[in-house]
Design a protein that fits this description.
about 375 residues; alpha/beta; 13 helices; CbiD-like; 5-stranded mixed β-sheet; 18 strands; single chain
Length: about 375
């Protein structure tokens, strides 16, 4: 991957670290020899050669670690040691569990069931396959127990989505390909899907979506609702609607700042600035259609912030008509992308507060809040 003329370095996941550490520990346990490097072929088909750290031997176990390398991705687990302790086990098969610093699942809808260690399916399969390979190579027919741990995991987890998702006590062991791609949009979309899947598994038919912290603040301060009722979807409005439809939700209400939602009025369902910044052009076009003079249109086009444009709309008497037109187009594009999913929007400004909403917004809001179990706050 290349960004701004620089080739970005790939990394490897916590799942790859856990599988490599477990493979090395099993090999040392069953051969009695020490090993400081191990090869691992990840699901993406790439073969890694990883350094083995902090080897510790006991009578019936070996423990060792692999250091997480995120490449050029800004991952909070970069440099973390992921440990695997492999022990002889009288029962046949490979038993896998989490130890210190690995989270536990407390809510339905995640990759693992409630009560299980937050070691996802692909890393579990990687561990199992690699240990079975070591057993074959060493002619060992007994069982092995694997405990994955991350001493820094509990502190690191506070910087992740885990507390919000109901994963307590540590980080998750993740990865579907075994490789970390720098600043991957897909990783963010996958995170949104996890939270939406969880809401759906808990029985929600309707859901609140908001791009980020501005929306969460508005939900709390103006609507008086616990912001935990909403799923943060960043710039991925269209992708999130696709996921809602795929997961079987009946309806979704988008609550967003005018700076994001104006782009939707122009048909931009990914609102990241690298795809374009057409806010003033869209505002100016709708203001012109609502009766704003050519001079006023020029003033709007010269604005750098939506709040400044709103000031002009108020001063020139086209505020309500412009916002009405804008919300109609926002609603139109949400319906087009949502298809059979019922969609609506509430739009706000930090300076002007609630600017408007689609006709079905209040109904969607009440349904989503009731189903989320995170209702209105007192006061």
């Amino acid at each position: 991957m290349v960004r701004q003329g620089k080739r970005l370095r790939l990394g490897y996941t916590t799942g790859s670290c856990a599988a490599a550490a477990a493979k090395a520990a099993a090999w040392m346990l069953l051969t009695g020899r020490e090993r400081h490097k191990i090869t691992l072929t990840v699901p993406k088909g790439i073969t890694l050669e990883l350094d083995i750290r902090d080897i510790n031997r006991g009578e019936n176990f070996v423990s060792c670690a692999v250091e997480k390398d995120s490449g050029d991705d800004p991952d909070v687990t970069r440099g973390t040691l992921i440990y695997a302790r492999v022990s002889l086990c009288p029962q046949a098969g490979i038993a896998i569990d989490g130890g210190e610093g690995i989270g536990r699942v407390t809510r339905r809808g995640l990759d693992q069931p409630v009560g299980a260690a937050a070691i996802n399916s692909v890393p579990r399969e990687m561990i199992r396959e690699n240990l079975e390979e070591v057993c074959r190579l060493t002619d060992y027919a007994g069982g092995l127990s694997v405990i994955v741990s991350a001493p820094e995991g509990e502190a690191l987890a506070r910087k992740t989505f885990n507390p919000r998702l109901g994963i307590v006590g540590g980080i998750s062991i993740l990865g579907t390909t075994g490789i970390v791609e720098p600043m991957s949009e897909q990783a963010l979309i996958d995170t949104i899907k996890v939270e939406l899947s969880q809401r759906r598994a808990e029985g929600q038919d309707y859901v609140l979506l908001t791009p980020g912290n501005y929306g969460s603040d508005f939900i709390r301060q103006t609507l008086g609702i616990d912001p935990g009722a909403a799923v943060q979807v960043s710039n991925f409005i269209g992708e999130s609607l696709d996921l809602c439809r795929e997961l079987g939700f009946h309806g979704a209400l988008l609550i967003g700042h005018i700076g994001k939602l104006t782009k939707i009025a122009g048909g931009m369902l990914n609102t990241h600035s690298r795809y374009g910044d057409c806010r003033m052009e869209i505002l100016a076009a709708h203001a012109g259609a609502a009766g704003l003079s050519p001079e006023g249109i020029r003033e709007v086009l010269d604005c750098v912030a939506c709040d400044d444009a709103l000031r002009i709309l108020q001063e020139t008497g086209v505020y309500e008509a412009t916002l009405s037109r804008l919300l109609e187009r926002i609603g139109f594009h949400l319906v087009q992308r949502g298809d059979e999913l019922e969609t609506g929007a509430m739009m706000f400004s930090k300076e002007y507060g609630l600017l408007g909403e689609t006709g079905n917004a209040r109904t969607l809001l009440e349904r989503a809040v009731t189903e989320s179990g995170k209702g209105r706050r007192d006061g």
